[in-house]
C-alpha cells in the first residue's frame, strides 16, 4: 500500500537546517498496524504527515496505492487524502463551530456523498462510538474522551483504507485511551491499515509492527507478537 524509498525532508529556517526525515525507506502492507516510536523531535510527526499527504518531501519517492506522490500538486494530493485516509490527532482537531454531527459529517461532504447517505453513515458512526446522545453538542461541551470519540468517528465515517493516528491517547486517561486503542485494533481486524505515532510502549503493544526513529532515521524494526496472537 505504501512504499517509501530514500525519502528525505529538511526544514530550513534562517538559522538552522533540520533534516527531519533522513533517507527513509519503508514498506507498509495493506492490513498492517504499524507503530512509529522514538524520542521527541526524531521526525515521527513529519513522517506521518508525509504519509498522510498533508506535507510534501524533498527527495526520494513515495508510492501510495501504486501511484507516485512525488511532485503531485496539492489539489491532487488532497483528493487522494480525502478519499483514502482518516486522521486522529492528539488534540482531537475538531472544528469548534460545528456540532458533533457536523464534525463527523465533514469527510462525507468533502467526498460529495448525498445527504440521505450521509445521515445513515453519521448515525452509524455515532452509535459505534457511543456518542449519539451528544450529536447536537459542540466540541467544547464535551469531555476529552468524548471529543476523541468524535474524532475517531470522523476518521472512520468515510471507511478509509488507511487511518493515521498521531499520539491519539496523549490527552486521554487510561480508560479512554484504552477505548481508542481497542477501537483501532477492531478497525484493523476489519481491514483498515493503521499507522500510529506514539512514545508509549504500552500503546505500541497494540500494533503488529513497531519501527523506531532517531534523528530522522529508522534505527529499529520489529514484528509485534501480541497482535499476531489476536489475529
Ligand atoms: P516528532 O514528531 O518525533 O517529535 P517532528 O517530526 O515533529 O518530530 O520534528 C522533527 C524535527 O523537525 C525536529 O527537530 C523539529 O524541531 C523539526 N521541525 C518540525 N516541524 C518543523 C517546522 N515546521 N519548521 C522547522 N523545523 C521543524
Ligand atoms: P466520557 O468518559 O463518557 O467521555 P466523562 O466521564 O469524562 O465522559 O464525563 C462525564 C460527563 O460530564 C459527561 O456526560 C460529559 O458530557 C460531561 N462533561 C465533561 N466535561 C464537560 C465539559 N467541559 N462541559 C460540559 N460537560 C462536560
Automatic annotation (TrEMBL):
The keyword Isomerase does not apply. SUPFAM superfamilies: P-loop containing nucleoside triphosphate hydrolases. One of its GO terms (cellular component) is plasma membrane. It comes from the Bacteria. One of its GO terms (molecular function) is transmembrane transporter activity. PROSITE patterns: ABC_TRANSPORTER_1, ABC_TRANSPORTER_2. InterPro entries: AAA+_ATPase, ABC_transporter-like_ATP-bd, ABC_transporter-like_CS, ABC_transpr_LolD-like, MacB-like_ATP-bd, P-loop_NTPase. Residues 2-231 form the ABC transporter domain. Keywords: ATP-binding, Nucleotide-binding, Transport. Belongs to the ABC transporter superfamily. Macrolide exporter (TC 3.A.1.122) family. This is ATP-binding cassette domain-containing protein.
